[in-house]
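User: Fold both of these, please.

Assistant: Here is the first one.
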Amino acid sequence: MKFLILDVYPKDDWRLVKDTAGGYGTGNDFGNSFFSKLINKFVSKMIAMPPMYAMYVYSIIKNKGHEVSYSRDINNNVKILEADYIIMPTSIIAHETEKQILHWLTKKEKKIFLIGIFSNVMNKEYDVHNSYIVRGEPENFFLNLNYNQQELDLYFKEGSSQRNSSNGMVANIDELPFPDWAYYVKKYPLKNNFVGFNSKIAIPLLATRGCPYSCFHYCTYPLQQGRKIRHRSVENIVKEMKHWIKSLKTNKFIFRDPVFSIDRKHTVSLCEAIIRENLKIEFLIETHLKNLDDEMIELLKRAGLKMVYVGIESSDTTILKDINRFTVNNDQQYQVIQKLTKNGIYVKSMFMFGNPEDTEETIKKTIQYSKFLPNQLVQYSVFTLYPGTPVYNEFKDKIILHKLEKYNQYNLVYNHKYLNNDIIGKLKNLGYRKFYSDLKNFLVVFLSFTSFLRK
């Protein structure tokens, strides 16, 4: 049998990644000023990766002995028509484009498996003739699938038990084969030049899934991965690192855990194994500042940590409390970030504009706070109402933006009592101009530019 993973995207002028925002995806539209448009182009060339679950599915099917390929080319009619089954990753940032291609495929009588949390949440939008929405984690579905064509066709037959079946999550993440990045990089870029400021292949890596924090009020990661933490064994993670160091000649890794280091014991064991094995790697994590103390920072540095993404969101505690944001106080934020930077670790702090209680004044104060912190990189996104989250149900009557591809974390999608999209756009432009024109950030801007020029 032939499977084709058809991963489709709209034709936007900025970086589109379906793996971020808990599988809903983000589109980094930094703004409409000349400076912000430059950042759009720059970042789209510096960072690139596919939805990680799609590449896990690729490897699972390949290991089952079937022909499978991954493509973003919707014009490759030969490959599309030759496939017995199409597998389509779904997202909010490509929703209308995905639906358009989905209807085109069904007219050609292709059978389509729809994967990803967004098709689960928006199942009525994707439920068309000859499509089957894989409920739960797609890796679990394809791991346990009976690859008999008659059995597979039952998923597309109304009234069959397969058609109405549900699918859970992967209980033991060690059972997953390594995503076949060696195949992927022959066709598409896989990079994050900000890590180490070089152009080596950057391997997305998984240590844990799940997030128990209260931010599920507006965050989608618990929808995708659940609130219970699931671990890969340290041995399995190190084995994968060694595999890519040897086969792809890279030592650069991007951990895609929602909150790396949430389990201190597991993180310590992993770092100690990396040091003991003398892997000489460099890696990026996203975590909560609460999980980083002096001892942990030192251990992560020795293991090869080069960059940390941390969510700050706002400098105003009242605004954070309103959205159920779990955080530490501003003094602690400064102290932890300072410890990271003093240890030679770059920090990207992430902020949200347009929170329900935000005003122009509070956002400008957040911009000033972002400059005050010792972080070298920032990201200013926009509070987004995601279908499936509690905050979406709370504000759905105030939604003013109905094209879901615009729900990319960079547009105000609801009727805010103090702000509109024009004001938000001006504040984004202001923030990026102020932060990156500051002389204290010259080194990171210079290193970023030089890494961009390298092949």
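And the second sequence with its predicted structure:
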Amino acid sequence: MSHNPPIRWALLGAALLALTACGSGSGGGGESDQVTLTYRLWDDQQKVGYEKVMAAFEKANPGIHVNIELLPYDQYWTKLTADAVAGTAPDVFWMTPTQFPEYVTKGVLSPVQVDASKYHQTVVGSFTYENKLYGVPKDWGIVGLLYNKDLFKQAGVEMPDKLTWAKDGTGTLLDTARKLTVDEAGKHPGEAGFDPAKVKTYGFASWNHYQTQWMNWVSSNGGKLVDKPFGKYAFNDPASVEALQFGVDLINKHHVAPPATQTNPPTGKVTDMFKAGKVAMFPANNALLPFVAPEATFEMGVAAMPEGPQGRSVNLNGLAEAVYAKSKHPKEAMKLAEYLGTQEPQKMMADGGYVFPALNGLSQGYVDYWKAKKIDVTPFEQEAQGSTFPLPITTGFTGFETKLNQIFNEMYLGKLTPKAAADQAVAEGNATVK
């Protein structure tokens, strides 16, 4: 995930003030004029689905043509910021919870008018600012547990009905992970002669990845990432620190997860290790399925994330269809965004196996798509009906992210205590909140 240089944002604020006087109006002429809208996304797989969606939109709206623009994720935000500075951003584009605060507080986004009660409420909350919704809820992805059924069978281990964890190491998660972790001599952690330096297969992947890892531990232990939306970071409280300690202990104390030297970002190889059959249980967002499933040489299962001392609380990351506030075709841009939030397009994207739609009641198509590929994704869907939380929604996160990873890399390596790492990260993070 790239972050935007602060100087760009300073320019953006000034440029938008200058632009407020212009850029309105629907671009001239009468109803017969063909209006071309630009729609920007970053996922080449979803682009295939959106080509069908836009064809349906254009058929219903013959006066509007939609040009789909694909940019790789690492270029997407740099280009979007530059375009917003120049006053040339696309009419409708994808927006994430972590980028949203920067764009909405600088006046880049238009408020939208949809019935918010029809969408997943974590997604709605992720794009709400000063009681207004600034993006049509598009979809959601949620963190669950992918697991290697072949490794479970080889070890003679059943996936428990419910995985649980506690700070003292009790619970079915660690118990199961121990049975699945084996060294070259066939020994498990806790057995005499077990060699943590020569592990053949790890039971679990614990690593420095905030979305699928430590933020879920924190939330499931009653800790808080931020004190309120658009507020300050708060994950250095005792409950959060306990949760961070648990994630690190899985590696350095219990030896059921690969050492951080192999997994720390930016060179993390965890996905590759899972695909290669070296890790049995792998927390991942369902959005990773199209990239993992085709390459897996084993039968793959999906389980719900473990329950912590305060129950299960899982990251749900939604996207929104954002409308550029300075679009030259505001009426048509809004029409497109609102259409993308309706049943027909959201069902098309779900049925194609691309995403869980943000619109409630349409998940079955996504479930059926993956069922045909022998993967039961209902645990993802069930989790979404329970306690979920968004990524931190506050200004400055994208600039803070690199520093956060650097500090937590040291923690996962055992060079910083979780308390010291959390205190340092919270102080650094809060210095970026405007």
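The chain is about 40% helix and 15% strand.
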